[in-house]
């Protein structure tokens, strides 16, 4: 999730754990602790694919954060004695640190909660920025600064509201999963890999991607749709055309669970993460090989291409689609990239 959300979550958690000992300084410390795991973005692993894959790695692991919280609590008490006992202080620090990756795990990106074990958790029920989750935390933390007699209670209310919304996002995901399973059952697509994620800043309109060899199918479904049938649009997924795959491409494929699109763009071979973004707005696109002067393909360290700009004209269409207008699905895609749905195939 974004830094504002993580800071608000850390502050609310700290306020709740502190109880009657809560103060503005406690909220500030909680906000700082809540953003601490994301400092790994400052680390340079040498190339954009490694930076992407290794983000939310060791700094988001409970195997790292738990002992680190113990060390931090011990140092805090030694260097700056507080009104908290060691157990409460450790619980406050650990809760602020660990709720950060737990929340991240509900997004589509993937969070290595059990690093160094090769396990990535991505529930994919909430977008990386969602005001309906963040605003209750911000409002209640702000209110606690005004009415200081009820700081812990107000922080608890904010956490309760946000947690209920997070729980709702999982319910909404299950509803969409049921729709997809029902539609694909008894078709050639029944056993194909499926990816489902909410569209930006909501949990009502959802994006569905189905892999089918050199093709992938993309569709939108809203919880407000009267017709539950998803209009899938066929798109060219391509394949890696060279005999050998660069190590970094294999890393990207593993990280995305093979949800990758392959293209030749001019004299470059590219691969794009299909999970993050929607329609033609797919921000994680990398060059893995280039055509040299001798006409041979050569691999080098991957280079990330500039993300496409969002077209303002698509925003009203996206809002109407969220409200259940199923006549505008194709309008959200670029005409050259989105052929008409083939209903007999899906």
From TrEMBL:
One MF annotation (Gene Ontology) recorded for this entry:
hydrolase activity
What's the domain of life for this entry? Answer: Bacteria
Q: Which residue spans adopt a coiled-coil conformation according to this UniProt entry? A: none
Q: Report the InterPro entries cross-referenced here.
A: Transcription_regulator, YdjM-like
Statement: the UniProt record of this protein carries the keyword Hydrolase: yes
Q: Which Pfam families match?
A: YdjM
Per UniProt, the keywords (alphabetical) are: Hydrolase, Membrane, Transmembrane, Transmembrane helix
Q: What is this protein called?
A: Hydrolase
């Amino acid at each position: 999730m974004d830094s504002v959300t993580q800071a608000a979550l850390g502050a609310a958690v700290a306020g709740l754990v502190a109880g009657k000992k809560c103060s503005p300084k406690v909220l500030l410390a909680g906000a700082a602790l809540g953003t601490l795991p994301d400092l790994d973005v400052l680390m340079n692993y040498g190339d954009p694919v490694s930076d992407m894959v290794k983000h939310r790695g060791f700094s988001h692991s409970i195997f790292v954060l738990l002992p680190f919280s113990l060390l931090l609590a011990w140092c805090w008490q030694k260097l700056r004695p507080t009104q908290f006992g060691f157990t409460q202080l450790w619980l406050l620090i650990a809760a602020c640190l660990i709720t950060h990756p737990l929340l991240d795990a509900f997004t589509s990106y993937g969070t290595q909660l059990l690093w160094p074990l090769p396990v990535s958790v991505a529930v994919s029920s909430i977008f990386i920025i969602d005001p309906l989750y963040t605003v209750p935390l911000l409002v209640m933390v702000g209110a606690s600064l005004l009415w200081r007699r009820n700081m812990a209670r107000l922080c608890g209310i904010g956490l309760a509201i946000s947690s209920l919304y997070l729980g709702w996002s999982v319910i909404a995901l299950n509803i969409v999963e049921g729709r997809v399973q029902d539609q694909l059952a008894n078709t050639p697509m029944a056993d194909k890999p499926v990816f489902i994620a909410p569209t930006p800043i909501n949990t009502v309109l959802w994006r569905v991607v189905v892999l089918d060899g050199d093709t992938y199918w993309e569709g939108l479904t809203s919880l407000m749709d009267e017709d539950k049938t998803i209009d899938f649009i066929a798109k060219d997924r391509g394949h890696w055309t060279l005999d050998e795959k660069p190590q970094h491409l294999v890393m990207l494929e593993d990280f995305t669970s093979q949800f990758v699109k392959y293209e030749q763009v001019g004299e470059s071979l590219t691969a794009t993460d299909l999970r993050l973004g929607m329609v033609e707005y797919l921000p994680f696109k990398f060059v893995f090989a280039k055509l040299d002067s001798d006409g041979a393909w050569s691999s080098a360290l991957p280079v990330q291409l500039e993300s496409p700009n969002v077209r303002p004209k698509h925003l009203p269409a996206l809002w109407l689609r969220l409200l259940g207008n199923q006549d505008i699905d194709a309008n959200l895609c670029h005409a050259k990239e989105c052929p008409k749905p083939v209903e007999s195939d899906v």
